[in-house]
Amino acid sequence: GRFKKLRSKNVTQKNKLFFFFCQKEVKMILRLYIEAYGSRLTCLETGSFLMNYVSCAQCNKRDFVLIANKATDDEDGEELITFDHMCTNCHHVIAKHEYTFSVVDEYQEYTMLCMLCGRAEDSISVLPDDPRQTAPLF
């Protein structure tokens, strides 16, 4: 349907192919995850959010997820951890996981971005009592 509409608009062959591959990518994403980049309440430094995993797009099996190609980079006070979620059976890369940690002022800042695990941000005070959490006395 939509591919035929593109043909009538006189777009280049390269754009048609890009649109076709985007459609295939969206169909694959819908087979892999219940919700891609879903909003989460916590950031995962390691592990996988398996409740969001449907099955591998390559072998169609749902099994444990391996963590591979883990890398840590420390730059300008920000720690960046990246790794791949891989299918246990066929080693297909299911998703790329990115986790950051930094200290800003008096808070530890965490972020996570992953198609499987979702996206999340968190901030925790380095002080014993978080000034944002204290209730007024009166």
Q: How would you describe this protein?
A:
- This protein has a domain at 33-125: Immunoglobulin-like (Sandwich), CATH 2.60.40.
- It has two helices and five strands.
- It has helices at residues 2-8, 13-32, and strands spanning 65-75, 78-87, 93-104, 107-114, 118-125.
- It has a five-stranded antiparallel sheet with strand order 1-2-3-4-5, with no helix packed on it.
- The radius of gyration is 20 Å and the shape is elongated.
- It comes from Leptobrachium leishanense.
- This is Protein Churchill.
- Keywords: Activator, Developmental protein, Metal-binding, Transcription, Transcription regulation, Zinc.
- One of its GO terms (biological process) is positive regulation of DNA-templated transcription.
Strand order of the largest sheet: 1-2-3-4-5
Largest sheet, in brief, is: 5 strands, antiparallel
- The CATH topology of the domain at 33-125 turns out to be Immunoglobulin-like
CATH superfamily of the domain at 33-125, by name, is: Transcription activator, Churchill
Q: What's the mean pLDDT score?
A: 70
Care to count the β-strands?
5
CATH class placement of the domain at 33-125: Mainly Beta
CATH architectural grouping of the domain at 33-125 = Sandwich
Strand percentage lies at 35-45%
The radius of gyration over CA amounts to 20 Å
Low-confidence stretches: 1-30
Q: What is the end-to-end distance? A: 64 Å
Order of helices and strands: HHEEEEE
By secondary-structure content and strand pairing, the structural class works out as alpha+beta
Helix content: 10-25%
How large is the count of helical segments? Answer: 2
Indicate the overall shape: elongated
